[in-house]
């Protein structure tokens, strides 16, 4: 894909991710499975596109199996340090979102308290994480 199209595609995916986050923040008082899936969908689209462009690898999911497979591929290539940071942040945010959407109130509460968060400021934390991923993604050399 030509560089201009790659940048447009990344911008499009990031806009989708921001849109999903903003929709959740405005329309939901809690954070559950549906809300998590909306954000995870954007994270997956972003990492899948980056893997295809930078590694010529077709990522199929965000499970531990796929993360291990991706880490194995990354270890055999010379990847940009920023790309590695983006990958790690995406998987960390995915894990946090899963624990936050758990039906078990103790798991949800533990996830929040480990980071000093509560129901009121959790959305700003998620927004901060998405912005950090987006900022790093924008400086990657994707062509």
As a whole number of angstroms, the C-alpha radius of gyration is 15 Å
Q: Which bin fits the share of residues in helices?
A: over 70%
Count of individual domains = 1
Number of DSSP strand runs? 0
SSE run: HHHHHH
Low-confidence stretches: none
Distance between the termini: 7 Å
Number of helices: 6
Strand content: under 5%
Structural class: mainly alpha
Q: Look at the structure and give the mean pLDDT.
A: 86
Q: Globular, elongated, flat, extended or rod-shaped: what is the shape?
A: globular
Q: What summary fits the major beta sheet?
A: none
Q: In a nutshell, what does this entry contain?
A:
It is built from six helices and no strands. The chain is an all-alpha fold. The protein has one domain.
Task: Summarize the topology.
Layout lengths: L2 H25 L5 H23 L8 H12 L5 H20 L4 H10 L7 H17 L5
Molecular structure report:
- The protein is an all-alpha fold and 143 residues long.
- Helices cover 75% and strands 0% of the residues.
- It is globular, with a radius of gyration of 15 Å.
- Helix 1 runs antiparallel to helix 2, helix 1 (3-27) runs antiparallel to helix 6 (122-138) and helix 2 (33-55) runs antiparallel to helix 4.
- The chain has helices at 3-27, 33-55, 64-75, 81-100, 105-114, 122-138.
């Amino acid at each position: 894909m030509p560089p201009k199209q790659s940048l447009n595609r990344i911008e499009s995916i990031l806009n989708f991710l921001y849109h999903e986050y903003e929709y959740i923040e405005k329309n939901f008082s809690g954070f559950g499975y549906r809300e998590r899936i909306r954000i995870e969908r954007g994270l997956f689209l972003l990492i899948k596109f980056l893997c295809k462009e930078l590694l010529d690898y077709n990522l199929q999911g965000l499970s531990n199996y796929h993360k291990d497979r991706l880490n194995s591929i990354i270890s055999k290539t010379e990847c940009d340090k920023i790309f590695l940071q983006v990958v790690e942040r995406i998987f960390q945010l995915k894990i946090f979102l899963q624990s936050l959407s758990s039906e078990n109130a103790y798991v949800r509460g533990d996830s929040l308290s480990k980071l000093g968060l509560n129901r009121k400021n959790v959305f700003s934390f998620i927004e901060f994480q998405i912005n950090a991923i987006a900022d790093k993604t924008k400086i990657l050399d994707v062509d």
